[in-house]
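Recall from the previous lesson that a structure prediction takes nothing but the amino acid sequence as input. Here we apply that procedure to Diacylglycerol O-acyltransferase from Streptomyces jumonjinensis. The sequence below is the only information supplied.
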Amino acid sequence: MSSERLAPLDLAFWHLESDGHPMHLGALAFFAPAEGTGGGERVLELLAARAAAIPRLRLRVRDVLLPVGGAAWAADEDFDIRRHVRRLALSADDFAAEATAIAGELMERPLERGHPPWEMHLLTGGPDDDFAVLVKLHHALADGMRAVAIGAGVLDEIAGARSARPRRSRPAPQGAWSADPRRLLGFARDRIDDLGRAVGVGASVVRASRLDPRGLPALTAAPSGTRRLGTAVLDLEDVRRVRKAAGGTANDVLLAIVAGGLRRWAAERGERLPRTGPRALVPVSRRRPGTPSGPSGPGNTFSAYLLELPVAEPDARARLDAVRAVMDRNRAAGPLRGAGALAVLADQLPPLAHRLGTPLAGGAARMLFDLLVTSVPLPRSALSLGGCPLGAIYPMAPLPRGQSLSIAMAVYGGRVHMGLVADGKALPDLDRLTEHLGEETARLLDLTLR
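The prediction returns the following tokens.
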């Protein structure tokens, strides 16, 4: 692990970061108390011990001589779990609202780059000893699926299974691939295929770029460096009933709900609705079945689709139909085609290109899309920490440069939990947007079940 080089996309995320645009993702989890937990100090000790036992969380990024511009994961010789796991006592009457506000402020702060790039914050002071845990992981350290694996590693069910599982020795390294002509030929074919795919994606990116983006003004406002977190909860059964009546996938329904929520929110603000857009980037996992997604698996592995959210369409059912049509075309083409497959390009660039070019290219994101909308898969079983059941969990995605809003969604306990990360000055009324998402769900349900 200590000699593992950063994958191209991980390296891109590492160099894309700036003080005003931290590239960490996260989650805010709320737990109910349980008898015999021993209070906040007991939970803090448990959280620290389990996090320290995850090998990947002891690694930091270091520069390497070769390849030029590259970086690798190395063990942090000065690792101190107290630097990464902290407790913050709250005293507000509305614990959930205060924890959400504090989480937004904590998401503003970039992670310390000289040490393993992650933090966990225990937020205590809820009624009857309720508490919350905020997890921050740099995007170079984890994509959505690996972040789930790392975060789940501190929970009772996963930590218990890990301690009971016997350690497996790593398989001995195979002989050099160049010794087998057939493997060499296969490697060459794969690289040619990758290069051809990258050229096609590059052309799609150029065609899809907009020199003068005209979405909702708040979504492309000048960045302030501030962060605000909003949360929304939808009934999963409502989403499934709409999907069953209208067709498509549950994700199509959720994207239509986002479109309708944005339409309601913009109308309430008095903003003029654009004829097309705003354009959403919808990440898609590229992990193959059987590919490790745990804390020791490969680096970031995903692509994305582009979708014009039909906010100008006044009819909720027509909005859903429009989303379905575009997503059907995206799925038919596959995640490795089209302008959304930016990760394919990142995989083909040498490390020096990421080091020099990524910071300059970061501002180009707004030319391609206006907001990020992503789904994060969670374990289906009930989860707990120190015997305290997990009640709600809100995933959070980073804000690329030039973006003011990202939306992440996760299904847990029969509900869809939505975490909205926004620029605090561009979207001071983020709570209104979260309310409109619930209203749009009810409207879609009413229309499709008539």
